From TrEMBL:
Species this protein is from: Malassezia japonica
Gene that this polypeptide is encoded by: THI4
UniProt modified residues of type 2,3-didehydroalanine (Cys): 400
Cofactor(s) this protein requires: Fe cation
Subunit comment: Homooctamer.
GO molecular function: cysteine-dependent adenosine diphosphate thiazole synthase activity; iron ion binding
Source species, domain of life: Eukaryota
Subcellular location: Cytoplasm; Nucleus
Name of the protein this chain belongs to: Thiamine thiazole synthase
Main enzyme class: transferase
Enzyme Commission (EC) number: 2.4.2.60
Amino acid sequence: MFAASAFKEAPYAFFNLAVFLGFMGLYIPFYYITSYGVRVWHEWTFAGPLFDLGYYRYLLLIGLILSVLGIMMTSIASKYWEIMLAQAVCLGLGALFVGFLTLYVPFYYISSYGITKIGMSSQLGFYLVPILNAGSVFGRLAPNYFADKIGPLNILIPFTSFCMILAFAWMGIFNTPGIIVFAVLYGMTSGTYRHIAAQQMRGTALQGAKIEPYHQHVPIVEGKEPVEDFEGNYVFADIKESHTSRAMTSRYYKDMMDAAVSDVVIIGAGSAGLTCAYTLAKRRPDLRITILEASVAPGGGAWLGGQLQSAMVIRKPAHNLLEEIGVPFDDEGAYVVVKHAALFTSTIMSKLLALPNVKLFNATCVEDLIVKKDSTGMQRINGVVTNYTLVSMAHGLQSCMDPQTITAPVICSFAGHDGPFGAFTVKRLESAGLVKLGDMHPMDMNKSESLIVNNTREIFPGAIVGGMELSELDGHPRMGASFGGMLGSGQKAALEAIKVFDRLEVEDGEVICERT
């Protein structure tokens, strides 16, 4: 027997091997049995003998009533024992009466049907089951690969539907070519069902973070019922302290797992970074976008206007974004004024974070870049190295805490002007001898904003830079307390990111080469 610690320390390949061996032990006897027509009796089962005695209508009626009732009762369960009663007792009893008729009847009946109904020779008729099993090779391999990409249920539902359609189509088959084609097609579709369970077992060590959020959808109230009464009788539902911890950590680490391979990483969630993320996510909902913000509060300088004064000035035509997201403003001719900068920040964040393809990690800074050569030998960005901001700020006060990485073929950096975490990407590329800084020049608002928007670009393969960080690279004038350049630069960066990503050949987040 293995000790528990042995499983914790075992390499990931060990679990894959265990699943494979268990799969072989389970399914090889099954295919041997079905290929040769051996009948297997289960002494603990009473549904099988009752079915053979002709009581299949009663079995189906009882089984379907119990199964549907169990599902319906689960939807209104609010306590743990109610869930157990609905799922374990009601649904479990229903499963005893209902077999997988659509799935397994062809395996046991197709040979008899071919011989007695179609008039096939016994030699060819008995080969229908091996033909069916041979057709299932497709169902055992290809769908499992795609299930890992889009989810097992998204594969299982259409293929089981095909099984149902073929089962009805079987009634119209009365010749040898038709029954052979049916055997092949049914094997292809039914093979998916029998093997998708093994695909779901892969990587079970990582499933806890994925499963926990779904558990939270069922409220379990052990004590007082919630009451919304503002006359002195307001009562919250009883929970345990561990519920809040699990609710937060499970979602956070699931987000980290999902973001470990991203399509675009955005560094800095100031006005330019948020605008870039919003524009990119709306235009390309297929892209996985991860935003990293070193501060606890995303928004950068956009939470306040100039010199801690709350109004936000935006020069035209950047005000078009305000109209798109629904932020009210006062029109002053050449520029508009939002009554409080936080109104813009909170509005765009609420719309951005509601999008399913966006992840935001605040209090998380970028400590380094990942630079690799692609298959053509070109050096290019391949992701970022991250750490908690508080850890990065206190490296000299504590022992080393190793960082994490996010693999991505494209980054958009809006780390601001020079500072503790400012202009990070361009400074890191300069230290590696890959770019040369021009240093930001004194303020000239009329020149600066147009220069920033027009020159937002890919400065190094895979690295797009905008906002004030670009001024540090190109030596543009300082911009001042007008945010039009930030919004325009963010929009321009999103368009550039789409162009860069679409010309890349990417596999699991890593760039293979540029498409010709």
